[in-house]
Amino acid sequence: MSERGRYMKLWLIFFCIPLFAQQPDPPGQVEPGEAAENEAYLFAHMTHQDYGRLYYSVSLDGLHWNRLNNGERVFEDYQGHPDIVKGPNGKYYIAGNTSDGSPDINIWVSDDLINWTEHSVYTPDLKATPGYSEALQRIGAPKLFYDKDSAHFVMTWHTPHKEGTDEDPERYWASQRTLYVLSKDLKNFQGPPQKLFEWDMGTIDVIIRKVEDTYYAIIKDETYPTLYWPTGKTIRTARSESLLGPYSLPSDPISPNFREAPSLIPSPNGKAWYMYYEQYPGVSYGLSIADNLNGPWYQASGYTFFSDWDKYSLPEKVRHGCMITISKGEYNNLVEEFGVDDKPSAN
To answer: CDD domains this protein is in (predicted)?
Structure first.
């Protein structure tokens, strides 16, 4: 090969080919002929135009999501930040509240994720929380987790203890603390609320998950980001050997700054974890991926509007809620009941 030929070959390798290369797909998908460990997924969420009401999107791969019900509400009575858990009896429960200032947490129950009925109303005595008598009457984003080991539900939410001011509106958010209450049946609740974490920092949108022998609290660090607090407004994790702690200090950030409302799902083959989070207010959704909850995590490419680079997609203008695994049968029932938008999800 001539000197000029070798030069042209090197030029093609280093400058031309990468422009057209297909980037690798996220891990965790099933291979042809392989059975999925996690067959389908439901995203219960709100929208930018209709904040605090209940909408559904579904996915078969945990990466590409499509709207149900032509983008209309799926349950008119619901208000809140949707969070759904499956109980020991196979029934689903969803928690919400009409506003942060409402004294009540409302819980509904369903056999099929389609028809919901009122289950209970819980009114926590916030000022009875040990060590938190200064709590304000605010209940933010109730979340549910069922712990099989203790046969208890744990419901978490965030409550602040300082009002914001014109000079310092962020002190309201920095004063948020995560509280919880236990229940066997989500009708009877055990004692006053308790603080979940021993450490003293602002946290909201906390969800609890258990993997093998470890409990993980997935949090939003609610301190404002600065040079002195670079982890502010990011998604982080804390670990514990027991449901109620003590939890470790939070990890390094999983997400960029100004992200909230984490949702965690296992991949279809069960070998990876997909952590979604919203870039608020309703700008986009991010996705971080790891093969275990201790990391390391990397951020998948999406919302670039280039098909070779967008490795996940969600319907336009979705806002936060929760993602859960469902069976293929449940997926089919939801699609049959509500209809699915078969157009590609918009970025």
So the answer is: GH43_Bt3655-like
